[in-house]
Amino acid sequence: MKDKTDNIVMTKSYAFAIRCVKAYKYLAAEQKEFVLSKQMLRSGTAIGALIKEAEHAQSTADFINKMNIALKEANETEYWLMLLKDTGYMDEQSFTSVNEDCKEIVRLLISIVKTSKEKIVNNK
Predict the structure, then answer these.
(1) Closest by alpha carbon to 1, among 115, 105, 124, 121?
(2) Tens digits of residue pLDDT in 58-90
(3) Residue 113 near residue 69 (C-beta atoms within 8 A)
(4) Rg of the chain taking only CA atoms, in angstroms
């Protein structure tokens, strides 16, 4: 059920969640922006929580489902980050740095989901 990259994706998603919390604190305190940043905080921290949940999935299908939801949350986080940048709340340098981390997590999750689905097909 677990893929070799689980530890990598968990480590990266946890570090990303910390970045999201710090970004939210900055945006709320310094920019007085609460709505978009709260959405980014919610989806950005949900990624790691879902990956953590998947560690104790009841089945391979449950594991894939949780990883798929984590992938959706990562994709949503990318949206909020772009919106924060394009509305002037986040500068280009900050956006580029945090968005690259987000894209890397998206790529890892896509790989995990794809590999897990292939294992199901090959085991039939």
Answers:
(1) 115
(2) 999 999 999 999 999 999 999 999 999 999 999
(3) no
(4) 15
Amino acid 6: pLDDT: 47
Quote the percentage of the chain above a pLDDT of 90. 90
DSSP class of 21: H
Residue 88, classed as helix, strand or coil, is: coil
> Which region, left, alpha or beta, applies to residue 32 given φ > 0 means left and ψ of -120 to 50 means alpha?
left
Residue entry with tokens 């340098």: 93
Given a contact cutoff of 8 angstroms between Cβ atoms, the answer to whether 51 and 9 are in contact is yes
Of 17, 94, 28, 74, residue with least CA distance to 36: 28
Q: Which of 9, 34, 12, 13 is nearest to 23 (CA)?
A: 34
Q: What's the whole-model pTM score? A: 0.91
114 phi/psi in degrees, rounded to 5: -60, -50
